Amino acid sequence: MKRALGVLGVAAVVGAGVLTAATPGAAVTSHPKPTVVLVHGAFEDASAWAPVTRRLLAEHYPVLVPAVPLRGVAADVASLQGVLDSVPGPKILVGHSYGGLLISELAGSTSEVKALVYAAAFIPEAGETAGQLNARFPGSLIGPSTTHAVGPDLFVNAASYPSLFAAGLPALDTAVAAAGQRPILAAAFDEKVLSTAPSAIAKYALVATRDQAIPPAAERFEARRAHASITEVPSPHAIASAAPDAVVDVIHRASR
Predict the structure, then answer these.
(1) What is the pLDDT of residues 32-49, one digit of tens each?
(2) Are 20 and 49 in contact (CB under 8 A)?
């Protein structure tokens, strides 16, 4: 879960919220692998990817885990674009939840994107919003009874965090994640995505069959619509913590 394990010294922090191999150039020289860019979703930060990050770095993948401002699709894409433009060579973009909206937009404006991996994530088409996609099928617990606003920002209620994101994960880890959650601008859920991810880029989707934030039926529908290769995992929404090996396995497939 989010901060429970930390990075344990296998990564160096470079800039604000970005984790990368200590010497990416050296790793690429001996292991010519694409850079894996892990994009977190709403109500979390880069540490949500820690279990996946550790595994990839141990396998000598160059990895970036940028901090997403969570200020809306256009603002977040603009922020991440600068990070991606600084990364040479092929890239795999991996998005969790709301992060799926962002990697879809970034795919068309970023050079050398080899594949897109959607991990319990939205896979939008141009003109769609996260709110619209989440309401297409029943099953999401996100709503007025599980969230609260502080000014323009939206938070998940601490008592609702386990059922929404982390059913079955250790209670203390889940409580730590809930206490340190990053809010998202509430209006972000109603902001339209401007473009569909290019059809020429290979797509992979992990459907979390125990997800209660995004309905599994929505994840499955969007993945099929996008012609993504689908892997179903008995996981809650926090798939990077609940099933990191499954996520890494799909990234391996995407890198090949």
Answers:
(1) 799 999 999 999 999 999
(2) no
